[in-house]
Structures are given as structure tokens and as C-alpha cells.
Amino acid sequence: MERIIDILFLLYFGSHIPIALFFDFQAVLPGWMFPKLFVDTVDWYAEEFGDAMMKAKPAWFKSFCTCELFLQFPFFFVALYAYWKGISKCRWIRLPIIVYSTHVVTSLIPILFHIFLHDFTLESYKGPRTFTERLQLSGFYFPYFIVPLVLLLDALFHPVYVNGGSESTRTVKHKPKGRKHH
To answer: Is residue 148, in this structure, part of any structural domain at all?
Structure first.
């Protein structure tokens, strides 16, 4: 690791693996695939914090969780490798990070809008009703918006990518002008 922010990225991808594996994937995979402890934890969380998306599992929400399963989850391991080795040695990660982070940020926008604007009184499962409850529920999702946004900005603008590895502005070496020999 070369930069302090890489520790955040490592923690993000490293922690996302078990969260996705044991909790998020319950939205798209059969319940028998998960230990009872994790099923009970998701049930408790959804009831306690009003996450009707995890209980009702609407098709639009399942589509995001399916993308997480087949696209994002394998990428977590690739990103862990690149950030562990150091991005100056793995500059190839730039484009995959841009694709990943753009996908995740745009996936979280409808989820956050749903949390804040949906009328959950019409749902069969308890959802957040007050602004405080909506803020509390969005707090579980917001890190998966803000960290990918930081990843995206980092991949787009950090000198290690933009200047080919140099933290300072890249200087071009010129050959000294001399006489041409014929």
C-alpha cells in the first residue's frame, strides 16, 4: 500500500465480501443456502430498521443484488489484490475501478431515492415512516454510495493514474539540441 486512502479501499472491498456473501445475496439466492444465523440476522435487521427491500425483495432491487453477485463480487477480489500490491504497480485497475464505481453509484441512487421518497404505508412489510427512520436506514446504504464515489474520483484524477505514477507534475525530458550528422 502506498497511500493512506488505499487502507479505506482495502477495508471497503474486504468487508464487502462477507457482507455480500452472507447478507446481500439472500435477496437473490434460495434461503436454504445460508446458515440460520445469517437468515435470522437479515430478518432482525429488516424488521428493526424497516428495510422492506430486503423483506419484499422487489424485482428492481433483486436486479441490483444479481449484479452484485455476478459482476461486483468477483471484482472485490481483483480490487483487493490491486490495492494490496499498490496501484502504482497495478495501474491496470483504473478502468475496472471506473466501471465498478460508476455502476455502484448509479445503483445506489434509486435505492436511496426509494428509502427517502417511497410511501411505505402501502407495503406489506414495515418500512421507514419518519424522516429519522429513513435517515437511519439510508445510513446502512450510504457507505456503498460514498466510497465508490471516492473510488471514482480517485481513479479519474489521482496523479498515479493521470501522470503515470508520479505524485508531482510529470516533466518531459528533452534531448539536447545538437548538430545532425549526415
So the answer is: yes
Q: Which three cell numbers stand for residue 178?
A: 545538437
Are the C-beta atoms of residues 75 and 100 closer than 8 Å to each other? yes
Dihedral pair phi/psi, residue 173, rounded to 5°: -85, 130
The structural domain count of the chain equals 1
Residue 32 is classified by DSSP as: G
- Sole residue written with cell 412489510: 125
Domain of residue 136, residue span: 4-162
Local confidence pLDDT in tens for the 182 residues of the chain: 789 999 999 999 999 999 999 999 999 999 999 999 999 999 999 999 999 999 999 999 999 999 999 999 999 999 999 999 999 999 999 999 999 999 999 999 999 999 999 999 988 899 999 999 999 999 999 999 999 999 999 999 999 988 765 544 444 444 555 555 55
Residue 180: inside a domain: no
CB 54 within 8 A of CB 27: yes
> Which grid cell is 28?
437473490
pTM of the model: 0.86
Q: Which three cell numbers stand for residue 161?
A: 493514474
CB-based contact 155:101 (threshold 8 Å): yes
